[in-house]
Design goal:
Length: about 550
């Protein structure tokens, strides 16, 4: 006999309590830690190693070299690449680590945090694995909470180990409070960007969309901090709108203050609340900003692998190019001010003349800014170069290759579209500098001069794509190692002078090494050589892709 009489209404549905939405969180935390144990180890090892290395290397420079380094950090380019410049009057190794390192530690851990949050939330839903997990007794919010908890644990471990490392190898001026201030400030600032990634994971329907938007916010934070610090000594009001500044304004090893970390803590709490509200209002597997429904049949222009690759990559290229163009347009408008600042620095301290030369020439500043820009483009090339791997993992590559499409056409289409995107991502921001400079009457160089600068950077940027393509073609599981070339180029390019007895050959595998100075005529042989290397790596990846199984197991 039925327990419910006909016509008496539907059975009562039990409404889960708040606690049930977190069921299984502990098991998911253990699962994430086990699944990411190698990734967590290498992130932790790398950050702790760089803290230790910079402290040791800066200490080995000696007092005279540190004075010269302090002079560089007073310049606009030093402020952009480092920070507001606290403690430059008595520059010590620990102050140098804080002044020059905080920006880059926040940037690195910010990238890690965004990737971590999106990988274990939106990407899991997109792949369908999260649906299988939730078929078990797992609450609605458990995956997100487990991702947040594991990110807190990772950042906390990195902060504690880094602080203990600084204390262990530092001198008498490296105090317990200052060491934990610098590492905890960095950890909290990076957590802010991780929670931004979680918010975007609720809005978008794809993992790459959430990652892309999170990286845009990370880059915007860098730019806001840089512009604000250049505008006023010690940082302006604009600087305080960036999480980068919240870590720097704690002033470790100079005049320690703790309250700026509360800005990071408050932002984390607000972003958690926003992500929770958004997550409760969306359908599982969907986003609050759903994909636009397209036509039932494709037009003739979309029936081909190149059109498909373009459709998959166009949004990322648009966002990256627009962001870079806006950022470098602002740099161009700042060139007259930067030239005046360099001139006044030379007047107040003649030693600057040996470093910067012409008082009104901002080429040194432009060189560092454009180096930073090419590194960002290199990151874009690596992400888009790994796009075929995402298609293979999702099973879409097999479907495409089941059609009358050869492997060469399919893979070559992705390489071609990404290569064109890299060229655009290099050219547009550099030409935006020219537009900004002309707009404020600073027309010392012509359009052709800036176009030549863009052309000299293109082969080096394409090397990052070629290296990623070669890894994917032959060793698809190792595609992520493409980031090693970018990290190597960054470390050698910005901190190579700190490495004692660095052999010249160590620079040869750094693509940026072969780029001449800004507005200098490139060596045609070197330019062609780098271009051939980039093309050869792409061809090598194509050969490997044609020879191996799909999907790779």
């Amino acid at each position: 006999m039925s327990a419910v009489a006909p016509g008496r209404g539907a059975p009562t549905v039990a409404v889960p309590s708040f606690g049930s939405t977190l069921e299984g969180t502990g098991r998911l935390i253990r699962f994430i830690l086990r699944r990411d144990r190698a990734r967590i180890f290498w992130w932790t090892f790398s950050i702790v190693f760089f803290y230790a290395y910079f402290m040791v290397a800066l200490d080995a420079l000696g007092a005279e070299a540190l004075v010269g380094r302090a002079l560089l950090m007073e310049s606009p380019s030093g402020i952009v690449m480092g920070g507001p410049g606290y403690g430059l009057d008595a520059y010590t190794p620990e102050r140098a680590v804080a002044n020059e390192g905080i920006t880059w530690f926040v940037l690195a851990l910010g990238v890690m945090s965004v990737l971590h949050m999106v990988r274990h939330t939106r990407s899991e839903e997109e792949s369908g694995r999260s649906e299988l997990v939730r078929a078990n007794p797992v609450g609605r919010h458990a995956p997100a909470v487990a991702s947040v908890v594991t990110l807190v644990l990772v950042n906390a471990v990195i902060a504690v180990l880094s602080a203990m490392t600084l204390i262990g190898i530092g001198g008498e001026y490296v105090t317990f409070a200052d060491s934990f201030a610098i590492t905890s400030g960095v950890a909290c600032a990076s957590m802010v960007f991780g929670l931004v990634g979680l918010v975007f994971a609720q809005l978008t329907v794809s993992g790459r969309g959430a990652v892309g938007l999170g990286m845009v916010v990370l880059g915007l934070g860098f730019v806001v901090r840089a512009v604000g610090d250049v505008a006023e000594t010690g940082g302006s009001t604009l600087s305080w709108f960036s999480p980068f500044a919240w870590a720097q304004q704690m002033r470790p090893f100079v005049d320690l203050i703790w309250w700026p970390i509360l800005l990071s803590a408050g932002s984390i709490a607000i972003l958690l609340l926003v992500a929770s509200v958004l997550g409760s209002r969306r359908d599982f597997g969907g986003g609050l900003l759903p994909d636009r429904i397209g036509p039932a049949t494709a037009t003739a222009s979309l029936r081909g692998p190149i059109a498909l690759a373009w459709r998959q990559q166009r949004f990322a290229l648009l966002v990256v190019t627009a962001f870079f163009a806006a950022m470098w347009l602002g740099v161009g408008t700042m060139l007259p001010t930067i030239g005046e600042m360099v001139g006044s620095l030379i007047e107040s301290n003649p030693q600057f003349g040996a470093v910067f030369g012409d008082p009104g020439d901002p080429s040194g500043f432009l060189g560092l800014v454009m180096l930073e820009g090419v590194l960002f483009v290199g990151a874009y090339a690596i992400v888009m170069g790994a796009r075929p791997k995402a298609e293979e993992n999702a099973g879409r590559a097999e479907i495409a290759l089941a059609r009358p499409v050869s492997r060469t056409r399919w893979f070559g289409a992705h390489i071609l579209v990404t290569g064109i995107g890299v060229v655009i991502a290099v050219a547009v921001p550099i030409l935006a500098v020219w537009v900004g400079a002309v707009a404020v009457g600073f027309d010392r160089q012509s359009f052709g001069d800036y176009a030549l600068v863009a052309a000299t950077y293109v082969p080096s940027a394409l090397c990052y794509l070629g290296f990623t393509v070669a890894l994917y073609g032959w060793f698809p599981r190792a595609t992520g190692l493409g980031w090693l070339l970018l990290v190597y180029g960054f470390v050698i390019g910005l901190f190579g002078s700190l490495i004692q007895d660095l052999p010249e050959a160590a620079n040869y595998i750094n693509p940026i090494y072969w780029v001449p100075g800004v507005f200098e005529t490139p060596d045609l042989g070197e330019w062609l050589g780098v271009a051939v290397v980039a093309l050869g790596l792409c061809v090598l990846g194509m050969i490997g892709f044609r020879r191996r199984d799909i999907p790779a197991v």
